[in-house]
Amino acid sequence: MRTIAGRYVLEGRLGAGGMGEVYRARHLQLGKHFALKVIAPAFAADAPMRALFEREVKLASEINHPNIVSVVDYGEDPELGAFMVMELVQGVPLVAEQLSAPMPPRRALDILGQVADALDHIHKCGILHGDIKADNIMIVNEPEHGTTARRRRLVQLLDFGLARRVGLDDEGVSGSPHYLAPERALGGPTTVATDIYALGIVGFLLFTNSLPFDGELRDLMTAHVEQPMPTLAERRGEPVDAAIETLIARATAKDPAARHPSAAAFVYELKTVMDMLDVGRRRVRSSGTQRSVEPQEIAITQLFEQSPFAQALVSTDGVILVANRAFAEMSGILGDPVGHWLAEAHLAHVFKNLMRTIERAPMVGRPVERRAELATGDEIVLWAGPTQEPGRVHLVLRLAPSRSAAGYRDSSELIPHS
Fold it and tell me: Under 8 Å CB-to-CB from 95, ≥6 apart: which residues?
């Protein structure tokens, strides 16, 4: 057995990629096992390739997310050259999950949602993955709540060999041809939109057990640019819910501007699709009953996510029905805001009469505005308007320059919106 850098013993080869080989390694002092990636011998003395390898290590080490494999060490071995050490993932590649039939919708949506969550996180870190594909996704069976009685499928996103910072110019066309966005095939840069396209292709694979296009490299690139994307129903050989078809079709649109504007927007639509299909329904705490999201809320979610303002649709008893990420952050809500009761959010401490405002807005029959001053000297403005559908209120939050002294001072009366 070979020892690397005097502290890692190689115990077997796990696989290989374009940049190097991956081994199962045991730390001599800790006795713990890791995955150790060594730069390919052909690149060990190549300065540009070493720079790419080091970039992969640096970018991957900056990310901390449950659906992304963590980098824990980096070093140089006198014989093998540069290496990086990652947590050892015990699972199976996503491609191994695809056997002879498409995945059931429940499993496919869950896996796709976890990949999208990971993608959303790295985009918010200013990093583009550049190589989202089934081969770079691992499925792990992880015990829940510290027990082995129940296990759930946990997705792990691997391989940041083609990752780059947002805005960094690409050096030629790179990435896996089956997942290559049309604009990349034409020589355009890696962007959030190109990662979204590849995510959509992964979704297509999960729902149909096939990739939309196949063939030689030139044929593949031409197909991404010119050929219409097949529907899921065509490939699956059976009807597919229209909401799922729309989700994947939007992510794989030829025009980047027609795709989801962010991985977060993709996640929002995916979650509303799950609710519509009765997959992972959310419980509304104010009544203890379950609520199914209406079909039109998919479109509302998309509009809210593209808005420069924090927006939400809430019930008159204060339960969030639809909201964008900005609203969740300004309200002090961690995670998915849908199903949250606003009375328990930080926003209710800023606006002492928040629940009364929500209850009374439909009675007033016109939009109303509330203001509260923050310690920073700015004001947070709450706009509440009735909707055409009874029992629902449209909320908008924004920051505005203070009109008075610092400190919280919640206006006590409803102010008609001019």
Answer: 134, 135
Tokens coding 143: 């015990």
Instruction: Say how many Å lie between the first and final Cα of the chain, rounded.
Output: 77
Catalytic (active site) residue 219? no
Domain that holds residue 10: 3-87
More confident residue, 281 or 244: 244
Model confidence at 244, in pLDDT bands (50, 70, 90)? Answer: very high
Report the distance separating Cα 346 and Cα 6, nearest Å: 51
User: Do β-strands 33-39 and 81-87 pair in parallel, antiparallel, or remain unpaired?
Assistant: antiparallel
Same domain, yes or no: 147 and 269: yes
pLDDT greater than 80 at residue 229: yes
Q: Give the CATH number of the domain where residue 76 resides.
A: 3.30.200.20
Q: Supply the pTM of this predicted model.
A: 0.61
Mapping DSSP to helix (H, G, I), strand (E, B) and coil, where does residue 319 land? strand
Task: Say which CATH number the domain at 230 has.
Answer: 1.10.510.10
Average pLDDT across the chain, whole number: 79
Q: Tokens at residue 174, please? A: 């790179």
What number of CA atoms fall less than 13 Å from residue 258's CA on the CB side? 13
Q: How far apart are CA 263 and CA 68, in angstroms?
A: 15
Q: Which of 77, 131, 170, 195 is catalytic?
A: 131
